[in-house]
Amino acid sequence: MSAPVKDKELFRISAAGTGRRRRGGPVSLALRAAVPVIAALVVAIGLWLAVSYLLLSPSRRFLVPPPEQVLLDSFGNWKHLQPMLTALGLTAEVALVGLAIASALGIFTAVAMSQASWVERAVYPYAVVLQTVPILAIVPLIGLWFDYGFTSRVIVCVIIALFPMIANTLFGLHSASQGAHDLFTLNKATRWQRLTKLQLPAALPSIFTGLRTSSGLSVIGAIVGDFFFKQGEPGIGTLLDVYRARLQSTDLFAAIILASLFGIAVFAVFTALGKLVVGKRS
């Protein structure tokens, strides 16, 4: 081996070792990922404390109760926390059912649109209209047609979460390269084989992007439905409206935090699932 080749090999080994040292192990990567999140949380709590104690007088502090008061009076009091958890369970059920229906319907619609251009031309404009119509404008009609209970809440979730599934799945189905399509054509692949072995695998990253987006929108839809459809057991959105009307600020903040944590949890689950499935196929 000549001297220049040896120098290049030594440089490559040295660079690889430096890269490994820079990347570090799993613990180091987890710490680097967690530090910004913890720092942002500390800043948010600091701002919350500043607003409660510095900007508001004691007589107006009920507008933004300090975090320790929310922790003790709401999260630390089972009589206050138990109704919130029960309501959050109902809202979670509505959100997950709505997300499941929106996901199945969105993927099916996108597949149909990808297989026939006339279906795409006929359906896509109405999907856009469904996304752009203010949901609050049609909520009274949904309640009038489907009653004011569980079914209407699920329909609101489906309407809000459907379009991202259609748009992202359709984009993914069209993302397979022309070279791959030509290879399937040369091998006389059927339309079903082309769909299941080329287009759907290529669409998986986009499908999970749609799932992450739709999961958050479904939680929002469930809470919106709680606000307007109050028959049956109350959801977390119903309690938010009750706490607002009664000026129960600590419980209002606690309910908002619980709803936010649920939305984050659903988003995180689909993010992890997407990395697992797409990572295995890569």
UniProtKB/TrEMBL annotation:
PANTHER family: ABC TRANSPORTER PERMEASE PROTEIN (PTHR30151:SF41), ALKANE SULFONATE ABC TRANSPORTER-RELATED, MEMBRANE SUBUNIT (PTHR30151). It comes from the Bacteria. This is ABC transporter permease. Pfam families: BPD_transp_1. SUPFAM superfamilies: MetI-like (SSF161098). It comes from Amycolatopsis cynarae. It is found in: Cell membrane. Its main location: membrane. InterPro entries: MetI-like, MetI-like_sf. Keywords: Cell membrane, Membrane, Transmembrane, Transmembrane helix, Transport. Belongs to the binding-protein-dependent transport system permease family. It is a multi-pass membrane protein. The chain crosses the membrane at residues 29-56, 87-111, 123-146, 152-173, 252-273. Residues 88-274 form the ABC transmembrane type-1 domain.
